[in-house]
User: Which sequence fits this backbone?
């Protein structure tokens, strides 16, 4: 139940509902989209970006908060760590236990490599666990990898690396099959046909889901498989610096026990960075949908070891973060709510954007509606617009919400809002790191040998924006690829003597560039202590 | 001024704003969380917590990231519970109740006390899904347990020592892999791709100038 102050606006939304359901809003023209993004999307706010003055991407701009971490001091000095007696010695070291890291570990193990995983929190405490909406794959007769390619390439503003994108779409059906064979329960019709829907920016219904626990179902299955294979998982342990060998190849990592603060050394023939996203960096002060450990660590680790970043200046702000109630501020309202028919309406009950425009366009339209046109609703925590969820049951019939988006119903239900009967308030939330480390199609970084990357820490697969459902897909496709490639590379890798010289050199560059900073990185965790509003 | 309430973290009293969740209240009180905090949004099960409102007979369980503080709430987090996870080979498991007798025989010692169901942080009918598992009805067990976040609270209350979320995990994987209907169009598509049916189309896209791809994108037909 909403308090009195929302009732007038809700009445307007209800009065317009029948009409709004029938109304098919115009999609924007290419030019309209360009203008809208330039004026309202956070990626275009020049004052929020800083130019890097050292490192492989020197001269490029990235979000100010990220620049601070990329150009910060290390948590260690080279001489404070003894590399001569590694605590672990493996073929493949996987850093991060989300979907990308676990897929990589399973494939590396399958290929016969001695593999281990280190992860900051527990295995599965990761963005993968939180994905609700689903995973794309062109496996229906009216669809094809080529159509999938065009959707994703356009959605990403024609900036994706084509060899990565073609791998993504061509390996997609097999990725679904692989998951299915591991026991992931996709939504199916009685005859086995996959239940698929649209996502923002798709031209075919190719979103596969496991109710609205898609990521959780995938993640817990992969976790179970890692445990069945008895792959060693060192949890509550972060990688805080890569180790190279004398030839400049990746050869392990310095680890930090998050609880005891003990420092450990892992030596490896190949390393896979699968550390995920950056929502907890709170770029531009945005709330986030991400898990607690999403602090762009992998980008920092890679950057200091000399690996290049691609598109680190683009983030995805998901249009529908919860704007109310305060306890779930910033939490994700899955895009599937719109796929199932709910539209975005303003305080007067007017539909102001096609609900299935791409995410950046939808987000910019909401920001314009609230901050410029004055048609937002004051929530007590800022502004928001309505997402008219009762439309879903009017279109799909009673019971649709409980069947298809139970997690959403539960999330709002806890705070007394019945989304079957009442609309919900939304505003954009920091959701996904489009950019990351630059790789070739075998998952290896373009310029540090034996260093592989998979998942949200990669840049370039999607371009400058990502379609819903292509990320869960990329963690599986490129996670598996990185695992196989890293296992193969490990077979004939000869590791020279270990060094942290790059850390020393980086410190020298900081000094030489005249950067004055107290910051140390990677960040590892956000600090929320003594802050009442998060 | 925000309204404040008194809570007791591991017995120690703190005054916190009443609109916080247990998790944010702990942070407000000064805890930098490492354990017991994962997704912060009800999906990962890292933040299992037990509490009692002073004077209340009932001991309650919840997810700290999903539950508002209340006045006189006595809180203890349960960030880890020693569950039993049996190792098996998914390619070789039996797909009927024999697998349960082999891996999790303790489920047959359930005394029907329903403590698991009462404690579940996701309001699942835990006792019922264990009953389905006993019978080898894995489809129903999977359905009933689907929203489980594997927080382990149910197991902490079980007199029979059952590791409910692991039992359900096994049932879901067996159901997903072996019992759910197969998918013809998926198999067909994987084969078509292996056979190279789309190779030329994709090759063409790889070569096309961006302007032509823009045209393709902007004029593409969108399935209703
Ligand atoms: C709420 C939400 C909903 C989403 N919905 C969808 C969807 O419907 N469809 C879709 O395709 N995508 C969706 N996404 C995006 C997608 O889920 C993620 O991009 C993807 O799962 C990332 O996987 P990953 O394995 O790369 O990273 P993660 O799953 O985040 O895993 C990263 C892991 O690395 C660990 N780690 C981080 N730093 C370190 C370090 N220094 N040392 C050791 N370990 C470290 C983390 O703790 C974590 O375990 C969603 C994302 C969110 C947040
Ligand atoms: S069934 Fe048990 S482990 Fe699963 S959510 Fe409920 S209490 Fe947690
Ligand atoms: S708590 Fe244990 S014994 Fe009691 S009903 Fe649940 S499974 Fe059976
Ligand atoms: S932190 Fe993940 S469920 Fe609470």
Assistant:
């Amino acid at each position: 139940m909403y308090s009195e102050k929302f009732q007038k606006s809700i009445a307007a939304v209800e009065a317009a509902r029948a009409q709004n359901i029938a109304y098919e809003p115009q999609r924007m023209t290419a030019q309209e989209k360009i203008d809208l993004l330039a004026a309202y999307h956070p990626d275009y706010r020049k004052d929020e970006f800083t130019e890097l003055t050292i490192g492989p991407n020197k001269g490029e701009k990235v979000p100010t908060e990220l620049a601070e971490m990329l150009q910060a001091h290390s948590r260690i000095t080279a001489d404070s760590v003894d590399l001569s007696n590694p605590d672990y010695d493996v073929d493949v070291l996987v850093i991060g236990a989300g979907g990308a890291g676990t897929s990589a570990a399973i494939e590396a193990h399958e290929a016969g490599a001695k593999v281990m995983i280190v992860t900051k929190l527990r295995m599965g405490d990761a963005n993968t666990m939180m994905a609700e909406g689903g995973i794309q794959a062109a496996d229906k007769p009216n669809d094809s990898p080529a159509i999938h390619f065009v959707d994703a390439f356009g959605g990403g503003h024609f900036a994706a690396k084509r060899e990565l994108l073609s791998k993504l779409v061509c390996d997609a059906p097999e990725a679904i099959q692989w998951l299915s064979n591991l026991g992931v329960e996709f939504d199916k019709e009685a005859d086995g046909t996959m239940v698929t829907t649209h996502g923002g920016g798709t031209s075919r219904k190719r979103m596969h889901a496991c109710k609205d626990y898609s990521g959780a179902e995938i993640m817990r299955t992969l976790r179970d498989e890692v445990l069945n294979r008895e792959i060693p998982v060192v949890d509550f342990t972060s990688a805080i610096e890569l180790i190279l060998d004398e030839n400049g190849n990746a050869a392990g990592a310095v680890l930090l026990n998050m609880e005891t603060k003990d420092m450990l050394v892992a030596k490896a023939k190949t390393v896979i960075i699968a550390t995920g996203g950056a929502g907890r960096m709170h770029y531009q002060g945005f709330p986030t949908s991400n898990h607690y450990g999403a602090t762009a660590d992998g980008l920092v680790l890679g950057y200091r070891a000399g690996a290049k970043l691609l598109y680190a200046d683009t983030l995805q702000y998901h249009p529908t973060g919860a704007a109310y109630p305060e306890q779930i501020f910033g939490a994700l309202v899955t895009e599937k709510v719109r796929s199932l028919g709910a539209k975005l309406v303003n305080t007067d009950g007017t539909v102001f954007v096609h609900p299935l425009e791409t995410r950046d366009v939808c987000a910019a339209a909401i920001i314009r509606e609230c901050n410029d046109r004055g048609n937002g609703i004051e929530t007590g925590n800022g502004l928001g617009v309505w997402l008219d969820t009762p439309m879903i049951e009017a279109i799909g019939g009673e019971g649709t919400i409980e069947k298809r988006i139970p997690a959403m119903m539960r999330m709002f239900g806890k705070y007394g809002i019945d989304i079957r009967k009442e609309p919900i308030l939304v505003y954009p939330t920091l959701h996904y790191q489009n950019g990351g480390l630059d790789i070739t199609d075998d998952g290896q970084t373009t310029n540090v040998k034996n260093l592989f990357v998979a998942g949200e820490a990669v840049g370039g697969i999607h371009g400058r924006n990502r379609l819903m459902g292509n990320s869960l897909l990329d963690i599986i496709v490129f996670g598996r690829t990185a695992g196989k490639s890293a296992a193969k590379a490990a077979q004939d890798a000869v590791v020279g003597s270990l060094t942290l010289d790059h850390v020393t050199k980086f410190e020298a560059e900081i000094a030489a560039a005249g950067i004055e900073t107290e910051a140390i990185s990677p960040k590892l965790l956000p600090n929320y202590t003594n802050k009442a509003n998060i | 001024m925000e309204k404040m309430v008194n809570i007791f973290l591991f017995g120690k009293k703190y005054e916190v704003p009443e609109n916080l969740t247990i998790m944010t209240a702990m942070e407000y009180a000064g805890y930098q969380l490492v354990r017991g905090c994962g997704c912060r949004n009800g999906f990962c099960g890292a933040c299992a917590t037990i509490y009692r409102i002073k004077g209340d007979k009932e001991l309650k369980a919840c997810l700290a990231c999903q539950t508002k503080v209340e006045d006189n709430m006595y809180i203890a987090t349960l960030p880890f519970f020693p569950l039993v996870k049996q190792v098996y080979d998914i390619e070789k498991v039996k797909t009927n109740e024999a697998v349960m007798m082999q891996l999790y025989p303790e489920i047959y010692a359930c005394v029907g006390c329903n403590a698991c169901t009462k404690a579940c942080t996701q309001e699942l009918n835990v006792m019922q899904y264990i009953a389905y598992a006993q019978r080898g009805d894995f489809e129903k067990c999977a359905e009933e347990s689907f929203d489980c976040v594997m927080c382990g609270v149910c197991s902490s209350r079980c007199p029979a020592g059952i590791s409910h979320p692991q039992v359900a995990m096994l049932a879901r994987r067996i159901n997903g892999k072996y019992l759910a209907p197969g998918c013809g169009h998926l198999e067909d598509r994987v084969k078509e791709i292996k056979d190279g049916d789309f190779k030329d189309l994709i090759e063409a896209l790889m070569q096309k100038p961006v302007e032509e791809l823009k045209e393709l994108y902007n004029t593409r037909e969108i399935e209703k």
In short: Strands of chain B lie at 4-9, 12-17, 48-53, 60-63, 73-77. Chain B touches chain A through 70 residues (CB under 8 Å). The first strand of chain B starts at residue 4 and ends at 9. The mean pLDDT of chain B is 96.
